[in-house]
Amino acid sequence: MLPPPVLVRTARGLWHWQWRRLMSGLGPADPAGRYRRPEAAFATLPELPADADQPGAHVLIVGRSCPWAHRAWLVWSLRRLAGSIDLLVVEPDPAAGRWRFPEPFEGCTMLTDLYGRSDAPPGTRASVPVLVSRGTGRILGNESARLIELLNRWPAPAGSPDLDPPERAEACAAWRQRLQGAVNDGVYRCGFARHQAAYDEAVADLFTTLEAAEEELERQERLGSGWLSGGEGPGLADLVLFPTLIRLEMVYAPLFGCSRRPLWQLPALWRWRARVFGLEGVAATCDAGAWRRDYFGALFPLHPSGIVPAGPDLATLVTSPPPR
Ligand SMILES: N[C@@H](CCC(=O)N[C@@H](CS)C(=O)NCC(=O)O)C(=O)O
Prior knowledge:
By secondary structure, the chain is of the alpha+beta class. It has 2 domains: 58-153, Glutaredoxin (3-Layer(aba) Sandwich); 169-318, Glutathione S-transferase Yfyf (Class Pi), Chain A, domain 2, CATH 1.20.1050. It is built from 12 helices and 6 strands. It has helices spanning 5-26, 67-78, 111-117, 144-153, 169-184, 186-191, 196-222, 236-245, 248-256, 267-277, 288-298, 314-318, and strands at 58-63, 85-93, 98-105, 108-110, 130-133, 139-141. The protein has a 6-stranded mixed β-sheet. Strand 5 and strand 6 form a beta hairpin. Helix 2 (67-78) packs parallel to helix 4 and helix 7 crosses helix 10 (267-277). The longest helix has 27 residues, at 196-222. The protein is globular and about 70 Å long. The chain binds glutathione (GSH). The site of glutathione has 11 residues, from loops.
């Protein structure tokens, strides 16, 4: 027998109230219910340290599921910085909502311990990516937009690409600026919206920008390039777009409602995504199982059951041409 309507209404009202409280734990919102990303504590572009080329003197800490960490990992990988910067992958601790070191690092078991020792203001979110000096645990930076610029200037082996060459710097900067708000943060603005209008605005921004990227990539392909800011190889703009788009069908469409158009309807973007995935070292930065587990398992307010969906298989997103 169905419960009486008054009970249903009360239960819904209570759940909704509780849901709004839980959503505040995911991030702040403005009065209109639009998600607002908190500022990083070490947000300025760090100086290139004097011992930058000393093997192992610095450690880049990333988490597999984090798209902001993914962009730093991609730059580290494509510029072949493994000889000078160690990569450390932290694991999520969903019960505590924190990042945990696989084994103690600089005497810390949790990333919050490392941040606690730094000069970050109390209450700072212990986020990835973060670049630290080994031995002292000093944090050089934790804002991915700045870290990728630093990693692109980091001394690299001969033949490593410059991902932001002067001749495309202007186009690259313009795309990065646009993608950051509408796409990289845009998927979170969709998923963490508190009201329909906030979601509608975010999803419109997201897909308008993806459609603009589609047009630009078509144009670049006609010019003989396959990259967002032109040229013969990927630039920083490509590397900030990729972590978001590779998670689209797997996480952001089903969980955050980023589903206005399936990506196969944007065939130049689809081809571009496969092109980026095919670059040496990129596949190793992609762990679809971890993405699904971390997002569906940890974002309780959006997915209380915690059930992790089965697909889609990453290989089907990056190898096959889009359906015509
Ligand atoms: N401003 C940062 C944001 C990074 C960020 O939000 N990282 C998330 C994972 S995707 C995190 O580590 N959050 C931990 C927390 O908020 O406690 C950047 O772009 O580098």
